[in-house]
User: Which sequence fits this backbone?
């Protein structure tokens, strides 16, 4: 009788400017909920969700941080051990797209991944439900940038649940693949307690 596969823990970081919908995307994926009331994230926050990727049980620990510059001092403790990064911009705010380059560099500098070139990123253009015919960030422009970095790109709406599940499952897929290639995945014991669904504060070091 074949032993069941152990669960793998993947630490996912969400980065992007304030107000692009990082927290809303996380809550939509994990809790299937959306609130129109905006509340800026202070410090760091994480939620967990278990998914199955190619037959492997995976626990995604998804970390959300405030986008304001004054909170970027979270530094190494926040980024350490990240297995993948979700870059989020608002399709209606061109600056939020332009800032993705600096956010990706911030991750590389702080997390110091084994390989800068192959670290898994996924890019989400959020709030497509609000995009009109003269949208600020054309899909073609965003996709061209993502393609140049071999980065999957999704256009999402946390409000309408558009492509949210698909995007986060892609994150899990490429993060798991990277872990397997590095040959050192972090396994969870079957009795682990992940804490509350909405734990706050510093990350485990």
Assistant:
């Amino acid at each position: 009788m074949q032993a069941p596969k152990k669960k793998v823990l993947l630490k996912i970081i969400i980065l992007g400017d304030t107000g692009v919908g990082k927290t809303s995307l996380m809550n939509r994926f994990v809790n299937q909920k959306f609130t129109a009331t905006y509340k800026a994230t202070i410090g760091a926050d994480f939620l967990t969700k278990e998914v199955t990727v190619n037959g492997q049980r995976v626990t995604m620990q998804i970390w959300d941080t405030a986008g304001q510059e004054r909170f970027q001092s979270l530094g190494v403790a926040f980024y350490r051990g990240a297995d993948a990064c979700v870059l989020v911009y608002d399709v209606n705010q061109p600056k939020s797209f332009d800032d993705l380059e600096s956010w990706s560099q911030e991750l590389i500098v702080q997390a110091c991944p084994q390989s800068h070139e192959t670290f898994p990123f996924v890019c989400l253009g959020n709030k497509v439900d609000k995009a009109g015919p003269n949208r600020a960030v054309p899909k073609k422009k965003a996709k061209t940038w993502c393609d140049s970095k071999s980065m999957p790109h999704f256009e999402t709406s946390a409000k309408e649940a558009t492509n949210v599940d698909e995007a986060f499952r892609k994150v899990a897929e490429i993060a798991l693949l990277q872990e397997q290639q590095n040959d050192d995945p972090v396994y969870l014991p079957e009795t682990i307690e992940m804490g509350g669904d909405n734990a706050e504060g510093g990350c485990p070091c």
